[in-house]
Amino acid sequence: MSTPDVVVVTPTRNRPELLWRAVASAAAQRDVTIQHIIVGDNCPVLADDGFAARLTQAFPHVTVINATPRSHPRVQHDYQWARVARLRNLGAAATDIDLIAHLDDDNTWDTGHLSSLVAALEAVPTAEMAHGWRRLLNDDGSPFYIPEGVDPWNDDEKVGAKSYALLVDAGVVVPGSNVLRDRVHFNGVLLGRVDTNELMVRRRLFERIPFPEEFSRWKQKIGLGDDALLNYLLLKNNVEVVCTEQVTVNYFMGGKSNQETYAPLAPVVR
């Protein structure tokens, strides 16, 4: 019996050790066959033919795309989340595999992550997206516990306190646990908490609602991320979403999906 095909997309820039860890995590997935698209954000590490060769030799299912200003001018954008979204979409569009998952270069998966998402979609053929839950970890792998009354993804103290209370009411945050039981909405109220690393979409959904690549000045001012805006679009368009209710994502705190990594740098034209 053949195993399901899944394409995994990982944007990256200049974090070779973390990238290698993420790729190894994807390669260890059980009961699926993956193609892993590594999309560099004008990445000098990926421009190093020696590193790229070692990566693809160790992981033959990996394809490397390094999006430079010359090779992929459309990807370039001063707002980091627009850049990340364009990199994700570029990677997803590089194949015609039906099932699409995303893994940031600073996170990892349990070995049953992808197969659990495949099973969830197979169980509900009308669903177009499946997601799991994540455990929050410090850089050393120890549990990260969200402080009471704090939303780590919101820099405004008052707004963060209100957000924390809503997340507790919704069951996303359980005090004393490092697990986020993410969901798109709670009683119709947008939470926008399904993280990119947790989800798998069918290609028909990607083609209809890709990661949003355009952000208004207001959205940029409040720092709206690509996955948060995607959550909004999923709710707005009544997309059927299923949850595995399994904790299969290791989410390392502090990277903010590579905020420093994706900060605009002096262009290197290759």
TrEMBL record:
Q: Where is the Glycosyltransferase 2-like domain?
A: 8-124
Q: One Pfam family this chain carries?
A: Glycos_transf_2
Family matches, as Gene3D superfamilies = Spore Coat Polysaccharide Biosynthesis Protein SpsA, Chain A
- Domain of life of the native organism: Bacteria
UniProt cross-references to InterPro entries, sorted A to Z: Glyco_trans_2-like (IPR001173), Glycosyltransf_2 (IPR050834), Nucleotide-diphossugar_trans (IPR029044)
| SUPFAM superfamilies hit by this protein | Nucleotide-diphospho-sugar transferases
* Protein name from the UniProt record: Glycosyltransferase family 2 protein
Q: Which organism is it from?
A: Streptomyces guryensis
